[in-house]
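Q: Okay, next protein. This is Transmembrane protein 120 like protein from Anopheles darlingi. I've checked the sequence twice, so it should be correct. Can you predict the 3D structure?
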Amino acid sequence: MDVNELEREWSELTEEFRSLEEANQSYLDLHERLEEMQEKCTKQIQHQRYRMQQISKILKQ
């Protein structure tokens, strides 16, 4: 391999790494959004359980 080929390989590797960084950042952003949605859903489920318990208590009276 001569110097030109090495430079070309290095350039390709650098570009592939940039692409990997972008994909990783996209993954991290989506993961954060997923965690936020999961937390929101969990809170809503807890609230629904609370309300169902309250209704159940009223019906038992």
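A: Here is a summary of the prediction. Helices lie at 3-60. Residues 3-60 form the longest helix (58 residues).
Q: Noted. On to the next one.
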